[in-house]
Amino acid sequence: MGADFVMLSLPPILVGVLAAIACALPGNFLLLRRQSMVGDAISHVVLPGIVMGFLLTGTAAPLVMVLGAGVAALVAVVLVEAIIRTARVEQGAAMGIVFTTMFAGGVLLLERSGASAVHLDVQHALYGNLESLIWLDATGWASLLDPVALAGLPPELAQLAVTALLIGAFVAVLWRPLKIATFDEGFAATLGLPVRVLSLALVMVAAAACVAAFQAVGSILVIAMLICPPAAARLMTDRLERQVGLSLILATVSAVAGYVLAGHGPLWLGLGGSVSVAGMTATVSGVILAVAALAGRHRRRAT
Amino acid sequence: MKPLRDLRPEAAPGPLPLAVRGLSVAYGERLVVDGVDAVFAAGKMTAIVGPNGAGKSSLLKAALGIVPRVAGQALFFGQPLAAVRDRVAYVPQRAGVDWDFPARVIDVVAMGLYGQLGLFGRMRCQHMTQAMDCLGRVGLTDFARRQIGALSGGQQQRVFLARALAQRADLIVLDEPFAGVDAATEKALVGVLHGLRDTGCAVVAVHHDLATVPVWFDAVLLINRRCIAEGPVATAFSEANIARAYAAIPANHA
């Protein structure tokens, strides 16, 4: 584990872990509010938003992407409501219609636009580009203390580190209100907690995580990390504090194991080459969930 | 505007714990509460009674600001709720929350301490003692570390009451506290609520069992979208008023 590791493996592992943590944290509350579908929807509609943002401004700057994704999310919300009212279908179906259509529209836009020149193409939308996040300026572990070399780190790393930190602060500061409002919204309202603002803020935080993680790790991993680590952690404990802590550990384990298995797994199986890190990480998180579902003793049916 | 009606001013000095005036609630086009006036006095246990869909829960939720009201106002101790939140405790319907939530009994009771602790206040020994004391009052001391989903319906209802007790409020508002609970819970709930009433607390409960109204409650509000009758059980809870409350509902009720 020397210079090669620091240059080639450390940045993608860190980006993967940070993306997983940024998504899993709000994912815990979405899961308990039975809104995991919302996270799923957001991670899909982000794509057309980002592409539109790029087509309109010609840049893929973070702010443009966040704004584009935000507008797309608003459009999606309006469309879902419109479909529920006009087509008279239930909410889950309406969301399914809207987000798959918008995602597919985003894919078409991507194909017909010049966005692929800046790493916006269908493959990246699904799997991200974790493998390409290498740190060319690194010469070994000592580079971690070298300001010149640090300046050459992939920008995604700093972007996701800030996002994960802000999301962590959001959850830490609003821990009690989030916990109370997630369990019992009516009671929370009588305490004077702004339950609608909290609910909206939670969705916006999840959206921010999706946008920040999207470019680096792709939509498949975003969806997996929003749902799988929290759902698996829920099966292992009956306390919210432990559930959130465990979900972060599981997200980290998935990201690290995903990277290692994607690079070496095929070789260990006697096959050549490697597979997508994002795809492998999502698969690992799914397997962890399956194991937790089979072994977890803490899930009881509400009476 | 005419002043608020105060049924027994001599019995309740100071502002009334809860007074609603002209309160209306609508879900979409449908008016579920229509211009209800009512007062709830300190040191009294008041039942809100009416048929299904009469707007009992909606009246309370609108007064507490949980659902929007289309008209009217609610005053708590003579003030808007925001000014006196720490004097008001609300116990929602048990069926309204997901009991599969990852929390222990003591965690739920501790939610009642939010008014004291705020965002960052540390949960100290005294708070733990207070929460355990509230659990003891509803007879669940031994269940503190159980997962809430593992409790029976009646035990869950008692956990909710313990959470309200932890708020140390002067007005406690309960939505169907006796729905689907066992006899032991019924006894425990009534005992605690009577104890609160006897110390001057105002207790208001949505209630569906007509037979127990005269046994447990001091006052009653009979509603069926509109206010049908209001006052002490002895006078307001008459056969004629009950019949009027449960009579066929006017045509625009879906």
Structure report:
The complex is a heterodimer of chains A (303) and B (254). The mean pLDDT of chain A is 86. Chain A is 77% helix and 0% strand. Chain A has 303 residues and is an all-alpha fold. Chain A is globular and about 55 Å long. Chain A has one domain (3-215): ABC transporter involved in vitamin B12 uptake, BtuC (Orthogonal Bundle). With 254 residues, chain B is an alpha/beta fold. Chain B has a single domain, classed as Rossmann fold (3-Layer(aba) Sandwich). Chain B is built from nine helices and nine strands. Chain B has helices at residues 56-63, 105-111, 114-117, 125-137, 153-166, 183-198, 213-216, 233-236, 239-245, and strands at 18-27, 30-40, 45-49, 71-75, 88-91, 171-174, 202-207, 219-224, 226-232. Chain B has a six-stranded mixed sheet with strand order 5-6-7-3-8-9, with helices on both faces. In chain B, helix 2 runs parallel beside helix 5 and helix 4 packs across helix 5. The longest helix of chain B has 16 residues, at 183-198. Classes of the chains: A mainly alpha (303), B alpha/beta (254). The interface between A and B is medium-sized, with 31 and 37 residues.
Count of the domains of chain A: 1
Remind me, CATH topology of chain A?
A: ABC transporter involved in vitamin B12 uptake, BtuC
Specify the CATH architecture of chain B.
3-Layer(aba) Sandwich
What is the N-to-C order of secondary-structure elements of chain B (H for helix, E for strand)?
EEEHEEHHHHEHEHEEHH
Separate helix tally of chain B: 9
- Poorly predicted segments of chain A: none
Order of helices and strands of chain A: HHHHHHHHHHHH
